[in-house]
Request: fold
Amino acid sequence: MKTDHTTQTLSTVDFPGKFSSQTVAPYIAPDCEVHYEALKSGKLLLPHCAQCHRTGPPSGGCCPWCGGDERSWQPAQSAPVIHSWVRYHRAYLPEFNNLVPYEVIAARFGDGPVLFGRWLANDVTPVIGTEIRPVIERWADGFCGVAFSEKDANL
Ligand SMILES: [Zn+2]
Reply:
C-alpha cells in the first residue's frame, strides 16, 4: 500500500536538551513563514508552482525551476530519499556538543527540492538512495525544523 503523504501528520520529536533555537534557526522570511508555521502542527508543506507544476524548496519568492511566482503550499507528495549526507565529528555550536558524532542528511523529495536535516538514527549509517522519513524536530523555544529517520522507525 502506498502511503498517502498528503494527509499524513509527521511525528514530532524534541531536540535533545533544553536549548533555544536562537543560534541555529534560520531567518524566516515572509515568503517561507507558511512552511515553518505548518511544521508546528505536524505538516511538511512545500511550494508547488502553478506554472510548471513542480515542487520547490521552502524559500525564495519564485519557482527555482521556471521563475514563476504563483505558488501554493502543499504537503510533500513523495517520501524523500537520501541524496547525500555528512557526519560531524566536531560540534560548531554548543547545542550539538552532546550529539557528536552526528549526521546531517540532504534529502531529495521526488523531482523537487533537497532539504537538510539531522539524522535521528544515531546507530545506523545513512545510505544514499534509501527512502527515509521526514520528522519534525522541536526545540525548547518552540521552533520546529525538519529532521529525518529510517522509513520504518518507531517514533
Ligand atoms: Zn515553476
About this structure: The mean pLDDT is 92.
